[in-house]
């Protein structure tokens, strides 16, 4: 949200053939990559940094129960960021994932989730899932990493009194919600967009130390000539993460 950070960002955008990088951006956010980190792993530094910022902005405490709603590549990064940063802080945090795709549920378990559960069909479904898990309290925090009305309302329904929803997905439409419930139960709604230079450094260190594993998040590897095919795979949700390989020129 820093005006200077936004003013010194790359121009015109990350998908352009050529970009300009202002000196301030180079000075503060260009990091040398260690030789132990592959180019594929290093490419996750920026999205992981955004997740790191979301976790750092969320008031998590020892023994909290966290729900990750949506287990795409970002949700699986968020899951690992919560776990890794909690461990660094000496906190034991229980983490649960929710998604519609069975393969992603299994991958979430393998990447450290205490469990991963199929997304229910109705808006109050997560409340019914997490009341037994949390001895009737509800989740302390829910991270929303997928857009849509139902995921948002399900995340809100999963919370305990005093719980927090962290919005980490762009919602293009209006979402109806019960403001009175939020008020009466002292619930909080936070949102996180992008990252900071410090978050980038933390993310790179998490990858370098192997505290966040990303190799299995790449579902497709395509040459740059098939860029549009890769974009279509993501739009159709047929890919978890597409990595574009550029052959070096001779």
UniProtKB/TrEMBL annotation:
Alphabetized Gene3D superfamilies for the sequence: Medium-chain alcohol dehydrogenases, catalytic domain, NAD(P)-binding Rossmann-like Domain
Entries under InterPro entries matching the protein: ADH-like_C, GroES-like_sf, NAD(P)-bd_dom_sf, Zn_alcohol_dh
GO terms for MF: oxidoreductase activity
Keyword flag Oxidoreductase: yes
UniProt entry keywords in alphabetical sequence: Oxidoreductase
The UniProt record lists the keyword NAD: no
Cited SUPFAM superfamilies: GroES-like, NAD(P)-binding Rossmann-fold domains
Residue ranges of domain Alcohol dehydrogenase-like C-terminal in the record: 74-208
Protein name stated in the entry: Alcohol dehydrogenase-like C-terminal domain-containing protein
């Amino acid at each position: 949200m820093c005006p200077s950070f936004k003013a010194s960002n790359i121009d015109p955008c990350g998908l352009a053939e050529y970009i300009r990088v202002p000196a301030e951006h180079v000075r503060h956010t260009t990091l040398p990559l260690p030789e132990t980190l592959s180019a594929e792993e290093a490419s996750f530094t920026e999205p992981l940094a955004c997740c790191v910022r979301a976790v750092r902005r969320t008031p998590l405490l020892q023994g909290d129960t966290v729900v990750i709603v949506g287990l795409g590549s970002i949700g699986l990064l968020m899951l690992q960021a919560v776990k890794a940063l909690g461990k660094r802080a000496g906190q034991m945090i229980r983490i649960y994932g929710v998604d519609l795709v069975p393969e992603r549920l299994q991958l979430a378990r393998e990447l450290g989730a205490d469990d991963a559960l199929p997304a229910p069909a109705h808006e109050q479904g997560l409340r019914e899932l997490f009341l037994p898990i949390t001895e009737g309290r509800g989740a302390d925090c829910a991270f929303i990493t997928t857009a849509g009305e139902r995921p948002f309302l399900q995340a809100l329904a999963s919370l305990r009194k005093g719980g927090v929803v962290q919005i980490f997905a762009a919602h293009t439409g209006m979402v109806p919600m019960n403001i009175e419930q939020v008020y009466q139960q002292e619930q909080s709604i936070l949102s996180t967009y992008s990252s900071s230079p410090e978050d980038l450094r933390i993310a790179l260190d998490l990858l370098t130390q192997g505290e966040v594993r990303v190799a299995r998040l790449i579902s497709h590897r395509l040459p740059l000539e098939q860029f549009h095919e890769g974009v279509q795979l993501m739009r159709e949700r047929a890919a978890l993460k597409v990595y574009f390989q550029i052959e070096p020129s001779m």
